[in-house]
Amino acid sequence: MPSPVLKYEPATSTLLAEVTKRSGQNLQACYQCRRCAAGCPVGEETGVTPDRLIRMIVVGDREEALNNLLVWKCVACYTCGTRCPNNIQTARITETLKQMAKKAHARPLTPRIADFHSAFMTSTRHLGRFNEIEALTIYETKTAIKELSQGKVKAVIDEMIGQARLALSMMRKKRLHIGVDRVKARSEVQALFEKAKGR
Amino acid sequence: MTQLAYYPGCSLHSSSELYDVQCKMVFKNLGIELKEIDDWNCCGATAASKTDEFLAVALPARNLGLATATGLSEIVIPCSSCYSRTLVSQKTLAADPGLKDSINAELSQKIKGDIKVSSILEVLVPRARSGELAAKAVKKLEGLKPACYYGCLLTRFPIDVNVPDDVENPQGMETVLKALGATPVDWGYKTDCCGASASVNDADQSQLLMSRIFTDAVGRGANCLVTTCPLCQFNVDAYQDAVGKKYGIEKRLPVYFITELIGMSMGFDPIEMQVDRHFVDAMGLLKELNLL
User: Fold this and answer.
1) Which chain A residue's Cα is nearest to B52?
2) B166 shares its domain with B268
3) Most buried one in A125, B72, B162, B231, CB count within 10 A?
4) Pick from B118, B152, B172: which residue ends a domain?
5) How many domains are contained in chain B?
């Protein structure tokens, strides 16, 4: 996949300062050696590797920086940051950009990934612990409604068959946990969620 | 009896309950009592760090407070994701007293002091080196050729952490398994990513990553995979058949937790250890190698 032509707006853009502050990463230290690109397990599919993402931010192309597949498909394996000679953790930059996209109410490029993490947090807030069945139900329902409204009937049916198969084999192998584990002091966990909202 | 604080995390209380059972059995035989911390919560895993910087630190912080309240000096966290998030939270709070005060204000058990956060390998490797594991073994794991699979989070962190193993080519699991008579294979994908939750929300991507892991493990002549991470274990076990069919990989490899192999060497009953709860049959190889 060819890299997009970037809009060069360093003088007017506040993007670099914002991402640097929020991610804690010194993006300007990047000298484009591309060791991160060589190690990125999803780079081939995203078309954008960590070095390109950093460049987008440095030149101030907000549009490209918030709307590329690496931001969403990054698996947070930390390979790029571990190998970076300048200690830049791009996984923290993709995390930052996801959070910025969420704050700006931008539509995520890959709704499934965004909705999964949101369902995970909803379940954790509710019970204090991650409940596989609850979180997956929230996620699959949301995904199905969204995709059906876009006419993606086959994708929804495939997903349902896939998940039903997995659930059955989990049941056969006694890996499906039916009981509900919950934290007694849930209010304490929920207070942390409230505090996060106010920040 | 040594006592260690213990954080099982959500996986070990649900789909990977077998790992919880095995940890307790193996540690007990090593003279270690695991004291599960009271009323722990989810660490937030990758979901928190991807959605909210504050919660990514605050959720594990509550558990650190509970762990400190046990009065013990070390906590062992077998799940790689929980281990990573908890250690990162601890280091972040140490560097940011303001954030620590803000989180402590919400907690009944405050974070104070510096309890040592250990992965399961940090507890097991010194005991392999000292000969303690071999001394407890009643069977040698002869014929077992594991590809030790570390995944991402045991050796790579989003902040500077002193990693007690080689980051690109770790040897902790190999050290443990060699001490028990197994012959681990050398391979190139031991610290590669399985995709974690991408197996659910970005399936094609995750399956591509797993296909590379299986291809290399099979090509290097491994007869099983071994891991310490419940998320890696679930992915490379539950999706192996689908990935194999999609990418033309014929051989299937059982995916053991390191604890079930140590348990087998200790002579434990595989059913009691729930070795029959794998997606790719894990009993057959043990039988074939006369390890049952």
Assistant:
1) A99
2) yes
3) B231
4) B118
5) 2
Interface test with A, best of B81, B88, B149, B156 (most A CBs within 10 A): B156
Containing structural domain, residue B169 = 137-288
**Are residue B31 and residue B64 in the same domain, yes or no?**
yes
Any A CB within 8 A of B256 CB: no
Domain check: are B83 and B175 in the same one? Answer: no
Counting Cα atoms < 13 Å in the Cβ hemisphere of B137 gives: 24
C-alpha closest to that of B59 among B79, B43, B40:
B43
pTM exceeding 0.90: yes
B143 and B112 both lie in a single domain = no
Output the CA angle A95-A96-A97, nearest 5 degrees.
95
Instruction: Indicate whether B147 and B230 sit together in one domain.
Output: yes
Amino acid, res. B23? C
Report pLDDT digits (tens) over A60-102: 999 999 999 999 999 999 999 999 999 999 999 999 999 998 8
> Is there a single domain that holds both residue B166 and residue B111?
no
Residue-wise pLDDT tens digits, A118-169: 999 999 999 999 999 999 999 999 999 999 999 999 999 999 999 999 999 9
Q: Is the pLDDT of residue A198 over 90?
A: no
> What length does chain A have?
199
Q: What is the CATH number of the domain that holds B22?
A: 1.20.1050.140
Structure tokens at B98: 């303001």
Q: Which residues of A touch B198 (CB under 8 A)?
A: 73, 75, 113
Interface test with A, best of B55, B155, B241 (most A CBs within 10 A): B55
Q: What is the pLDDT of residues B143-197, one digit of tens each?
A: 999 999 999 999 999 999 999 999 999 999 999 999 999 999 999 999 999 999 9
Domain containing B177 — which CATH number?
A: 3.40.50.11810
Is the Cβ pair B202, A110 closer than 8 Å?
A: yes
On whether residue B129 sits in a domain, the answer given is no
Residue B178, classed as helix, strand or coil, is helix
List chain B residues with CB under 8 Å of A198: none
Tokens of residue A101, six digits: 């996209």
* B180 and B107 part of one domain: no
Tokens 């000969």 -> residue: B131
The predicted structure's pLDDT at residue B113: 83
All structural domains of chain A = 15-103 (1.10.1060.10), 111-197 (no CATH)
Do B103 and B147 belong together in one domain?
A: no
